[in-house]
Every structure is written in structure tokens, then in C-alpha cells.
């Protein structure tokens, strides 16, 4: 049986931490910042994570090379 390929689109967007959590950049930080309030801009700056354990497991399987 052939090896499972890494999902390259996902690999470009997320990073797996040493403990196996998924880190990603939040959406909405590219333009139109004057419309967003300061609290929202600060939240966008911080790295995001995946809360669901089921979804994290599926993403890790897709990233496995």
C-alpha cells in the first residue's frame, strides 16, 4: 500500500507544535484595518489554534508524510 501524502495546502497554512497542537494565523489581517476596532485587531494578531480534538486529529493525519 502506498504512503499517505502530505496535504500541501494545509502544510502551508498551519504548524504542529511539539505537543501536537495546531497553530495557525487568524483571518482578516490583510486589509481594512481602519474599520476594525483595537480589541479586534489585537485578537487577529495573536496566533490561533484548533479547539476540537477530532478536527486536530484529522489535520495531523493529513499532514503526516
Describe the structure.
- The protein has 65 residues and is of the alpha+beta class.
- It has a single domain (8-63), classed as Factor Xa Inhibitor (Irregular), CATH 4.10.410.60.
- The protein is built from 3 helices and 3 strands, in the order αββαβα.
- It has helices at residues 8-13, 38-45, 53-63; strands at residues 14-16, 22-24, 48-49.
- Strands 1-2-3 form a 3-stranded antiparallel β-sheet.
- The two termini are 14 Å apart.
- The mean pLDDT is 91.
CATH-derived topology:
Factor Xa Inhibitor
Oligomer: single chain
Query: Given this structure, which CATH class is correct?
Result: Few Secondary Structures
Strand order across the biggest sheet?
1-2-3
CATH architecture level-2 label: Irregular
Briefly note the structural class of the backbone: alpha+beta
Give the CA-CA distance, first to last residue.
Answer: 14 Å
Percent in strands: 5-15%
Low-confidence stretches: none
- Helical stretch tally: 3
Mean pLDDT: 91
Envelope shape? elongated
Helix content: 25-40%
H-E string: HEEHEH
| Rg (C-alpha, Å) | 15 Å
In short:
The protein contains three helices and three strands; from the N terminus they run αββαβα.
Topology diagram in text:
Elements: H1 8-13, E1 14-16, E2 22-24, H2 38-45, E3 48-49, H3 53-63
Antiparallel strand pairs: 1-2, 2-3
Can you tag this structure with a few keywords?
Factor Xa Inhibitor, 65 residues, three-stranded antiparallel sheet, single chain
Amino acid at each position: 500500500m502506498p504512503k499517505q501524502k502530505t496535504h500541501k495546502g494545509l502544510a502551508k497554512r498551519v504548524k504542529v507544535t511539539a505537543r501536537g497542537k495546531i497553530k495557525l494565523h487568524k483571518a482578516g489581517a490583510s486589509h481594512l484595518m481602519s474599520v476594525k476596532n483595537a480589541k479586534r485587531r489585537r485578537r487577529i494578531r495573536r496566533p490561533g489554534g484548533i479547539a476540537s480534538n477530532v478536527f486536530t486529529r484529522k489535520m495531523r493525519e493529513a499532514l503526516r508524510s
